[in-house]
Amino acid sequence: MMTSNILNALHKQINEELFSAYAYLAISAKAEALQLPGFASWFRVQAKEEIDHAMGFFNHLAQRGETIELDALAKPELALSDARSLVAAGLHHEKHITGTINNLVKLAKSEDDAALGKLLEWYVEEQQEEEESLGGLVERIDALNNDQQSLLSLDTELGQRQYHPSSILTNTI
Q: How far apart are CA 129 and CA 151, in angstroms?
C-alpha cells in the first residue's frame, strides 16, 4: 500500500502529464494557424506520447490496487508566435516535467517505495530524451537564420514523425 504522500503526488503527476498533452495540442493548433502542418503533426504525436506517460502512472496505481483520482486540467497559457516559440514552449514545459519527475524520485526514496523507484527510472530516461529532442529542434531552428525555405524543409521533415505506443504502457510492477 502506498503512503498518502506518494498517492497524492502520483495523482498530481497524472494531471501534469495530461496537461502536457493538452499543452501540446494547443501548440499544434498554433502551428496549424501558422501554416506549419509538419510542426502541427509533430506536436500531435507528442500529445499522444504524453497521454501514454499519464497512463503509465495510472496503470501503476491500478496494478497496486490504489484508487485513482483525476483533477481538472488548466487551460494552457502559452506565448506562441512562430516556429521557434512553439518548440521553445515545449522545451520549457519538458524542463518543468523533469523537475516534477525528479521530485517523485526523491519522494520514492524518502518513503522507501522501491516499486515506484523502478517505474521512475523509465521516466528519468524519457525526460532526458524529451529535453534533448526539443533542445535540438530549438538549435536547428536557430541555425536556419530565418531562412523560410529551410524552415519549410524542416516542417516537412517533422511531419514524417509517426506515433508509436510508449513502452511504459507494458510496464508492470
A: 23
